[in-house]
Amino acid sequence: MAQVISVHSFRGGTGKSNTTANLAASTALRGKRVGIVDTDIQSPGIHVLFGLDEAKLTRSLNDYLWGRCRIGETAYDVTPPPVATAGGKMFLIPSSLRPGEIARILKEGYDIKLLSKGFRELIDHLQLDCLFIDTHPGLNEETLLSIAISDTLVLLLRPDKQDFQGTAVTVEVARKLKVNRMLLVANKVLPEVDAASLRRDIETAYRVPVAAVLPLTEDMVRLGSDGVFSLINPTHPLSALYRSLAATVTETAVE
After folding, report:
1. Cβ distance 144 to 169 under 8 Å?
2. Which of 159, 193, 210, 249 has the most CB atoms around it within 10 Å of its CB?
3. What is the CA radius of gyration of the chain?
4. 3-class DSSP state for residue 99?
5. CA-based angle 155:250:166, to the nearest 5?
6. pLDDT tens digits, 153-208
7. The model's pTM
8. Domains and CATH numbers, the chain
9. Could you read off the pLDDT of 231-248 as tens digits, one per residue?
Protein backbone atom coordinates (compact mmCIF):
# COMPACT_ATOMS: atom_id res chain seq x y z
CA MET A 1 0.00 0.00 0.00
CA ALA A 2 1.53 3.32 -1.10
CA GLN A 3 1.89 6.12 1.41
CA VAL A 4 0.69 9.65 0.63
CA ILE A 5 2.75 12.28 2.46
CA SER A 6 1.91 15.99 2.31
CA VAL A 7 4.61 18.52 3.20
CA HIS A 8 3.05 21.82 4.19
CA SER A 9 3.64 25.14 5.92
CA PHE A 10 1.33 27.99 6.82
CA ARG A 11 3.71 30.59 5.40
CA GLY A 12 6.16 30.67 2.52
CA GLY A 13 9.91 30.69 3.01
CA THR A 14 10.05 27.76 5.41
CA GLY A 15 12.08 25.57 3.04
CA LYS A 16 9.11 23.35 2.23
CA SER A 17 10.12 22.44 -1.34
CA ASN A 18 13.73 21.74 -0.37
CA THR A 19 12.53 19.54 2.48
CA THR A 20 10.11 17.68 0.20
CA ALA A 21 12.84 17.04 -2.36
CA ASN A 22 15.31 15.81 0.25
CA LEU A 23 12.75 13.57 1.95
CA ALA A 24 11.79 12.07 -1.40
CA ALA A 25 15.43 11.51 -2.38
CA SER A 26 16.28 9.95 0.99
CA THR A 27 13.33 7.60 0.63
CA ALA A 28 14.24 6.64 -2.95
CA LEU A 29 17.80 5.90 -1.83
CA ARG A 30 16.29 3.06 0.17
CA GLY A 31 15.22 1.40 -3.06
CA LYS A 32 11.69 2.85 -3.11
CA ARG A 33 9.64 4.14 -6.04
CA VAL A 34 8.80 7.72 -5.16
CA GLY A 35 6.59 10.34 -6.79
CA ILE A 36 6.56 14.08 -6.09
CA VAL A 37 3.66 16.33 -7.08
CA ASP A 38 4.04 20.10 -7.08
CA THR A 39 0.56 21.34 -6.13
CA ASP A 40 1.89 24.84 -5.44
CA ILE A 41 0.26 25.83 -8.72
CA GLN A 42 0.27 29.55 -7.98
CA SER A 43 4.03 29.65 -7.33
CA PRO A 44 5.68 26.42 -8.53
CA GLY A 45 9.39 25.79 -8.23
CA ILE A 46 10.40 22.34 -7.00
CA HIS A 47 11.34 21.37 -10.58
CA VAL A 48 14.34 23.70 -10.27
CA LEU A 49 15.83 21.43 -7.61
CA PHE A 50 15.77 18.55 -10.09
CA GLY A 51 17.27 20.55 -12.95
CA LEU A 52 14.18 20.42 -15.16
CA ASP A 53 14.19 23.16 -17.80
CA GLU A 54 10.73 24.77 -17.87
CA ALA A 55 11.10 25.51 -21.57
CA LYS A 56 11.50 21.80 -22.30
CA LEU A 57 8.54 20.58 -20.25
CA THR A 58 5.87 19.31 -22.62
CA ARG A 59 3.29 18.51 -19.94
CA SER A 60 2.57 19.72 -16.40
CA LEU A 61 -0.03 19.20 -13.69
CA ASN A 62 -1.94 22.10 -15.23
CA ASP A 63 -2.45 20.13 -18.45
CA TYR A 64 -4.00 17.26 -16.52
CA LEU A 65 -6.27 19.58 -14.51
CA TRP A 66 -7.57 21.13 -17.73
CA GLY A 67 -8.22 17.79 -19.39
CA ARG A 68 -5.40 17.95 -21.95
CA CYS A 69 -3.81 14.64 -20.92
CA ARG A 70 -3.76 11.85 -18.37
CA ILE A 71 -1.77 12.57 -15.25
CA GLY A 72 0.71 9.81 -16.04
CA GLU A 73 1.81 11.84 -19.07
CA THR A 74 2.93 14.69 -16.77
CA ALA A 75 5.41 12.53 -14.84
CA TYR A 76 9.13 13.03 -15.50
CA ASP A 77 11.74 10.48 -14.49
CA VAL A 78 14.22 12.48 -12.38
CA THR A 79 16.06 9.49 -10.93
CA PRO A 80 19.66 10.55 -10.18
CA PRO A 81 22.54 8.05 -10.45
CA PRO A 82 22.85 7.38 -6.68
CA VAL A 83 19.15 6.52 -6.46
CA ALA A 84 19.31 4.31 -9.56
CA THR A 85 22.29 2.46 -8.07
CA ALA A 86 20.26 1.86 -4.91
CA GLY A 87 17.40 0.42 -6.96
CA GLY A 88 15.04 3.34 -6.40
CA LYS A 89 13.10 5.55 -8.80
CA MET A 90 11.98 9.17 -8.63
CA PHE A 91 9.23 10.81 -10.66
CA LEU A 92 8.27 14.49 -10.61
CA ILE A 93 4.93 15.95 -11.66
CA PRO A 94 5.66 19.70 -12.00
CA SER A 95 3.26 22.61 -12.20
CA SER A 96 3.64 25.09 -15.04
CA LEU A 97 5.71 28.23 -14.58
CA ARG A 98 4.22 29.91 -17.65
CA PRO A 99 2.63 33.24 -16.61
CA GLY A 100 -0.44 32.69 -18.80
CA GLU A 101 -1.20 29.32 -17.23
CA ILE A 102 -0.71 30.62 -13.69
CA ALA A 103 -3.03 33.52 -14.51
CA ARG A 104 -5.62 31.08 -15.83
CA ILE A 105 -5.52 29.07 -12.62
CA LEU A 106 -5.98 32.23 -10.57
CA LYS A 107 -8.84 33.42 -12.77
CA GLU A 108 -10.72 30.23 -13.63
CA GLY A 109 -9.62 27.66 -11.07
CA TYR A 110 -10.11 23.94 -11.78
CA ASP A 111 -12.06 20.91 -10.61
CA ILE A 112 -10.45 20.15 -7.26
CA LYS A 113 -11.76 16.56 -7.32
CA LEU A 114 -9.38 15.81 -10.19
CA LEU A 115 -6.44 16.09 -7.79
CA SER A 116 -7.43 13.17 -5.57
CA LYS A 117 -8.33 11.12 -8.64
CA GLY A 118 -4.97 11.99 -10.19
CA PHE A 119 -3.04 11.02 -7.06
CA ARG A 120 -4.61 7.55 -7.10
CA GLU A 121 -3.91 7.15 -10.82
CA LEU A 122 -0.27 8.15 -10.33
CA ILE A 123 0.24 5.61 -7.58
CA ASP A 124 -1.16 2.84 -9.78
CA HIS A 125 0.45 3.96 -13.05
CA LEU A 126 3.94 4.44 -11.61
CA GLN A 127 3.66 1.65 -9.03
CA LEU A 128 4.73 4.02 -6.29
CA ASP A 129 5.71 3.17 -2.74
CA CYS A 130 5.43 6.80 -1.61
CA LEU A 131 3.79 9.90 -3.07
CA PHE A 132 5.05 13.22 -1.70
CA ILE A 133 2.85 16.29 -2.18
CA ASP A 134 4.55 19.70 -2.12
CA THR A 135 1.63 21.92 -1.15
CA HIS A 136 0.84 25.62 -1.54
CA PRO A 137 1.54 27.57 1.69
CA GLY A 138 -1.47 28.60 3.75
CA LEU A 139 -4.91 27.08 3.61
CA ASN A 140 -6.79 26.86 0.34
CA GLU A 141 -9.00 24.24 -1.29
CA GLU A 142 -6.29 22.10 -2.87
CA THR A 143 -4.20 22.20 0.29
CA LEU A 144 -7.15 21.08 2.42
CA LEU A 145 -7.76 18.21 0.00
CA SER A 146 -4.08 17.15 0.09
CA ILE A 147 -4.10 17.25 3.88
CA ALA A 148 -7.34 15.28 4.13
CA ILE A 149 -6.22 12.39 1.90
CA SER A 150 -2.71 12.11 3.35
CA ASP A 151 -1.48 9.22 5.43
CA THR A 152 1.03 11.59 7.01
CA LEU A 153 1.09 15.38 7.18
CA VAL A 154 4.50 16.99 7.72
CA LEU A 155 4.18 20.60 8.91
CA LEU A 156 7.21 22.87 8.64
CA LEU A 157 7.74 25.93 10.79
CA ARG A 158 10.59 28.24 11.54
CA PRO A 159 11.35 29.55 15.06
CA ASP A 160 9.36 32.67 14.22
CA LYS A 161 6.32 34.14 15.98
CA GLN A 162 4.24 34.40 12.79
CA ASP A 163 5.06 30.80 11.91
CA PHE A 164 4.05 29.66 15.41
CA GLN A 165 0.66 31.36 15.16
CA GLY A 166 -0.04 30.13 11.63
CA THR A 167 1.01 26.59 12.48
CA ALA A 168 -1.44 26.57 15.41
CA VAL A 169 -4.27 27.29 12.96
CA THR A 170 -3.09 24.58 10.55
CA VAL A 171 -2.80 21.99 13.33
CA GLU A 172 -6.38 22.63 14.44
CA VAL A 173 -7.67 22.41 10.87
CA ALA A 174 -5.78 19.14 10.36
CA ARG A 175 -7.35 17.74 13.52
CA LYS A 176 -10.81 18.66 12.27
CA LEU A 177 -10.00 16.89 9.00
CA LYS A 178 -8.96 13.84 11.07
CA VAL A 179 -5.53 13.47 9.50
CA ASN A 180 -4.16 10.00 10.22
CA ARG A 181 -0.75 11.20 11.37
CA MET A 182 0.79 14.62 11.86
CA LEU A 183 4.46 15.51 12.42
CA LEU A 184 6.13 18.86 12.96
CA VAL A 185 9.55 19.86 11.64
CA ALA A 186 11.37 22.94 12.89
CA ASN A 187 13.47 24.22 9.99
CA LYS A 188 16.13 26.89 9.50
CA VAL A 189 16.97 26.86 13.20
CA LEU A 190 20.04 28.90 14.13
CA PRO A 191 22.96 26.72 15.31
CA GLU A 192 23.12 28.41 18.71
CA VAL A 193 19.52 27.46 19.56
CA ASP A 194 19.13 24.53 21.96
CA ALA A 195 17.40 21.98 19.74
CA ALA A 196 16.16 19.83 22.63
CA SER A 197 14.54 22.80 24.38
CA LEU A 198 12.96 24.02 21.15
CA ARG A 199 11.58 20.53 20.49
CA ARG A 200 10.01 20.40 23.98
CA ASP A 201 8.49 23.86 23.63
CA ILE A 202 6.92 23.06 20.25
CA GLU A 203 5.56 19.70 21.36
CA THR A 204 4.07 21.28 24.48
CA ALA A 205 2.46 24.09 22.49
CA TYR A 206 0.89 21.97 19.74
CA ARG A 207 0.62 18.48 21.29
CA VAL A 208 2.14 17.10 18.08
CA PRO A 209 5.43 15.16 17.83
CA VAL A 210 8.45 17.02 16.45
CA ALA A 211 10.08 14.68 13.97
CA ALA A 212 13.19 16.80 13.42
CA VAL A 213 14.90 20.07 14.22
CA LEU A 214 16.84 21.07 11.10
CA PRO A 215 19.56 23.70 11.45
CA LEU A 216 20.14 26.64 9.15
CA THR A 217 23.44 25.90 7.43
CA GLU A 218 25.62 28.05 5.21
CA ASP A 219 26.09 25.11 2.87
CA MET A 220 22.36 24.89 2.16
CA VAL A 221 22.13 28.66 1.65
CA ARG A 222 25.15 28.57 -0.62
CA LEU A 223 23.60 25.87 -2.78
CA GLY A 224 20.71 28.22 -3.53
CA SER A 225 18.29 25.44 -4.60
CA ASP A 226 20.70 24.40 -7.36
CA GLY A 227 20.10 20.70 -6.72
CA VAL A 228 18.93 18.34 -4.00
CA PHE A 229 21.21 18.96 -1.03
CA SER A 230 21.37 15.43 0.38
CA LEU A 231 22.32 13.98 -3.02
CA ILE A 232 25.06 16.55 -3.60
CA ASN A 233 26.36 16.39 -0.02
CA PRO A 234 25.63 12.82 1.17
CA THR A 235 28.10 12.95 4.09
CA HIS A 236 26.91 16.31 5.43
CA PRO A 237 25.32 16.26 8.93
CA LEU A 238 22.17 17.88 7.49
CA SER A 239 21.87 15.04 4.97
CA ALA A 240 21.98 12.55 7.84
CA LEU A 241 19.12 14.45 9.48
CA TYR A 242 17.11 14.28 6.25
CA ARG A 243 17.65 10.52 6.08
CA SER A 244 16.53 10.11 9.68
CA LEU A 245 13.50 12.31 9.08
CA ALA A 246 12.58 10.35 5.95
CA ALA A 247 12.74 7.12 7.95
CA THR A 248 10.45 8.61 10.61
CA VAL A 249 7.99 10.01 8.07
CA THR A 250 7.75 6.72 6.15
CA GLU A 251 7.97 4.65 9.35
CA THR A 252 11.03 2.69 8.35
CA ALA A 253 14.22 1.93 10.24
CA VAL A 254 17.46 3.70 9.41
CA GLU A 255 20.10 1.25 8.26
Report:
1. no
2. 249
3. 17
4. helix
5. 5
6. 999 999 999 999 999 999 999 999 999 999 999 999 999 999 999 999 999 999 99
7. 0.93
8. 3-149+217-249 (3.40.50.300)
9. 999 999 999 999 999 999
